Structures
1.
Amino acid sequence: MLEELEQIRAEALAKLAEANDAKALEAWRVAYLGRKSPLKQVFTQMGKLPPEERPLVGKRTNEIRREFEAAYEERAAAIRQAELRRALAEERLDVTLPGRKPAPGRLHPVTQTIRRISEIFAEMGFQVLRSREVETDEYNFQLLNIPPHHPAREMQDTFYVKTQTEDDTYPVVLRTHTSPGQIHAMRMMSGYTGEGPLPENPPPLRVILPGMVYRYEQITARSEIQFTQVEGLAVGHNITFSDLKGTLADFARRMFGPEARVRFRASHFPFTEPSAEVDVECFLCGGKGCNVCKHTGWLEILGAGMVHPVVLRNGGYDPEKYSGFAFGMGPERITMLRHYIEDIRYFWSGDLRFLEQF
Ligand code: DAH
């Protein structure tokens, strides 16, 4: 029996040395330390032994079992080590490889245009202001000389946030243009609240007001319900139409190149008098005529005019003493012209294939 035990021991330890992974090790544990192991069988057969042999065999069996347990733990640790070394070797990182470039963000093409416009007017001494996008009917229309039911309101179909306010007077709208910023800018400078006598000597001002505007329109390749404008306003003593022309001509040269010329066509806006629409000579064909300018040689880029006396007064500037000019332009349109973009809907598509080109 003792011989048999030694045989079991030798065979088991030899097999353990051959177990090279967790699976083989587990199989070994079941075979030699489990319920059906040869050691267990020795125990069950102990009763058949002569009584004097039993203690010896029992003792040796227990010794071997402890030895197996220790050998098992040792082998398990060795296998864990080997697997760790293998994983480290296989999954080794080459830290000398160049890293992957993170995709950098970029400015939206319209933002780029607005920044360029702002830069140019800043060079000319204009402050850059922002005014609110949720506006009252009063600021968006009435203070700009567009009374309720004025036909000019049809030019700008409006998103109403609130159609009736508590005192039943001024509904709340999403601004349909940046022109209400004119009133905010003038009132900020003059301190006028809309009531009482006009302030004595409000300071002159030169500002541009870029921002988002909203119109309740059918979305097409040429019109969006949401787009940007840059409003301009200069108010002071003796500001004339020549100042407006000179400012916009200079803007065009800085924006589109030293050769760019502008032309003024008579137009109408309720908040300016006289009013004009301004074209810039087509910078794509140099005025010779192409598809983009529809063979006219000119591109319409903005509306402008001398600030209407009613509007000056609403801002706190006495029209007897002050005058001013204003203009409003569309950065989307300018961006489309500069980059041959044929559909305004690309700007809000969120399509990276489009946006990554700028
Ligand atoms: N607010 C006008 C529009 O949305 C654009 C405009 C025209 C602005 C003439 C002006 C201006 O300041 O003088 O169509």
Note: Residues 177, 179, 231, 269, 272, 303-305, 326-328 surround 3,4-dihydroxyphenylalanine (CB under 6 Å).
2.
Amino acid sequence: MEARGRFITLEGSEGVGKSTNIAVIADTLRLLGIDCVTTREPGGTPFAEEIRQLLLSVRAEPVSPNAELLLMFAARAQHLSELIEPALARGLWVVSDRFTDATFAYQGGGRGMNTAVIEQLERIVQGSLRPDLTLYLDLDPEVAANRLADRERDRFELESRPFFARVRNAYLERARSAERYRIIDASESLEVVGQNIRAVIERFVQQSRAGSSAS
Ligand code: TMP
């Protein structure tokens, strides 16, 4: 039977270079002979992408924090059952641009929602599934905002500087709390950030291979 794949997530605020670095992770895995799929949250399947549209579009009606939180987990439930779980079961590695750490950072940190509620939804939707490795691209929100510059902004990107400072603090607190996180300094050049990410992935693959040959 095919060994189960590994689940890698990439986190960080807008403007930190996640899209470029998702490709760096996938290319590094493929060079090491590992089949992987890349995906993103909210989204990743047609139905979940429709929920993403609902969540990101700028609208006049205020969105209730509970509605936002439940939609994030609704999209995640679909993403897990239709894409992530089947891929991992087939032995593919899954690389996701954001996952539940973003909920703790944005809804928990940014919106100030109760973390215990988020943990409960995490258990309901994911069971025991957690990422095997999470890379957090860390950047001062002021610098990140300048990188966004004149781009048209979605509902989250229109949030205030203090909101993004709370998001960063929540990410950092989580990233320092468990072994699966690696904090990457995203203030470096794209080239250096890419090199650092490649090094983390190569080490993780080595460890995974050593672990599976020992078992
Ligand atoms: P992005 O993937 O283009 O960065 O946009 C997704 C936006 O959704 C981003 O602003 C972060 C936000 N988000 C949450 O607020 N909670 C979540 O759980 C996830 C996955 C994303």
Note: Residues 14, 40-42, 72, 97-98, 102-103, 106-107, 156 surround thymidine-5'-phosphate (CB under 6 Å).
